[in-house]
User: What shape does this take?
Amino acid sequence: MRQVAIVGVGLVPVREHWEISIRDLAVEAGRAAMEDAGVEKIDALYVGNMTSGSINQQRQLGALVADFLGQRGVEAVRMEAACGSAGSAMRQGILAVASGDYDAVLAIGVEKMTETPGADTTTALVGAADAEYEAIHGVSFVGLNALIMRRYMHEYGYQQQDFAPFAINAHANGAHNPYAMFRKAITRETYERGRMVSEPVSLFDASPIGDGAAALLLVPAEKAPRAVRVAGSAVATDTLSIHDRKDPLWLQAAEDSVRRAYAQAGVGPDDIDLFEAHDAFSIMAALSLEACGFAERGQGVRLAQEEAIMPGGRIPISTMGGLKARGHPVGATGLYQLAEATLQLRGDAGDAQIDGVRTALAQNIGGSGATIVTHVLQRQ
Amino acid sequence: MRQVAIVGVGLVPVREHWEISIRDLAVEAGRAAMEDAGVEKIDALYVGNMTSGSINQQRQLGALVADFLGQRGVEAVRMEAACGSAGSAMRQGILAVASGDYDAVLAIGVEKMTETPGADTTTALVGAADAEYEAIHGVSFVGLNALIMRRYMHEYGYQQQDFAPFAINAHANGAHNPYAMFRKAITRETYERGRMVSEPVSLFDASPIGDGAAALLLVPAEKAPRAVRVAGSAVATDTLSIHDRKDPLWLQAAEDSVRRAYAQAGVGPDDIDLFEAHDAFSIMAALSLEACGFAERGQGVRLAQEEAIMPGGRIPISTMGGLKARGHPVGATGLYQLAEATLQLRGDAGDAQIDGVRTALAQNIGGSGATIVTHVLQRQ
Assistant: This one.
């Protein structure tokens, strides 16, 4: 099995891109990654996307994007695992290179959500939950996260405002990222004034959806010995329904996938210099920190309160703004995370640069923890 | 790169399964494939599906099906390439085994279409076409195929009734397949009485949608030296829009993918004993025969008229009924085709058995030819 390297990064700023179609968003990111790599011809394309079939009435994005990218004919397909779609596209791209089949593979995550009114988007998003056992009761996806957050507060004795450091860190970091949707730091007072979306999830505990696309170009590592290396890549799954889990406060699929990714890379939590966590909600960031071995059970929020998640802290997270400030174009997010980790490893993160980054962890979560894709990237 | 063998086949009869949910359809096929293989634990699951996000309001089918299949935790994801979704899931399953990552991989295709009224299904299906350049004009997916068929008739001088042998062969073969939706042979008179759906596509030139699931269990060939071998596996793409193709009557992605699959297997058209063609419409069967090298340009229909496509003919197609009689649960179809080819190679096709099958070709088409997945399977 061949090792895989990342030789190109392409990003579209996360915005409400009313004037750009889904295909053009994908093409812009893909072309930027190819230009960054100096590659003009790819062998295969994997597109991560969650909602285009319903929101954009467009399926078969693999072939469509390949064509408009000037790569008509190449193998292409779309991967879907709710908000874990782009991480899944990366994973398949890695398998395609590792298998020996292909030498230049593009993974693109893309989502275009501003085309339809709010209600349709909410319906599309709750498709990430179990339709017959969760969504049927009328709960929204934010509502499900509110239930988990409430339970966490109850079990471990926290208040809603204890989660403030996650939002403060993300927005401070997002201010340095030109591709971020929100580029303004917030204070604790701003957080505390945040209106409730679904109690106890406030506006500042939830990430904003948006339109965007991110792409990475993958090649066999022997062809790019100095490029950022994929040191670990793993996917694990869990029940869609939260009530089916032994412990609703434990991301089992995060633990399972990170354990495999750490083992592949020969590293542990102490070796990770930064962590692009899936902070779709503050509570998800806390649970991820715990499942990945950075904090004990119930201590993820404490870790944030101790400022260990800030730049310069023990385990910086959301270093380019995270889902919270960079924005969360759902099926594209996993590749934004991986692209940002790659920029950090290359020293190309600009004002958001974390010093001395050698090993980075990126974790992409589908649903409330049902599909979790974990990658360890390393600078050579 | 490791060779891959097929050790388990699982099929659900194609029907209007009003009483069975999409997850249960997938689980039934998956479990049957695992039982057939004598395998109790899989390493990864790839689910092919086209419309569940909109029709069933359920996304993230990979994790969901893994859980209900008793395989909670394994790597899983959904692949979508319109009607080429299940072929794509097979392709990814092959890459996962070939890469060396996994030793027991399940590919499941599933579609559950009878849950919503007709209009929604038509909208979901036209997502296979280009939303901005084709669907926006109000054309349906059947309508697009009617345009291609009309052009074919014009260019090569055929009448609508010249296409009759495709339907007659498919329905005769489907009568022998217990998993087929329609199990009744038809006469030429029946074909000629077929009402027009979208002229010149009559009821008997179009395949029926339905609910169904099909699964294959894949392992490294060295672990199953006597099992059916995946000798060739390739995907190629083309424009979604028919008007963007140099020749609307040539399936370039079929030619590209079959050429690669033939080369991998070290075979050519003369070595193929049966061909599970994507006969979603009679015209697609004709174009596939031409692109795969069984007939000259414009001679696909002639080949059918000469009965070369019938059992005992030079190149039997739709040997278990094809999409036409077995039924076309869109995102599941690619795995029905591969499962049927496997049964034929094992000598397990019952009354539909073709004698002396050593090498089989299966081709799964997304859209009107935008994603084409081609596999060559061989008996050892």
Summary: DSSP finds 13 helices and eleven strands in chain A. The first strand of chain A starts at residue 4 and ends at 11.
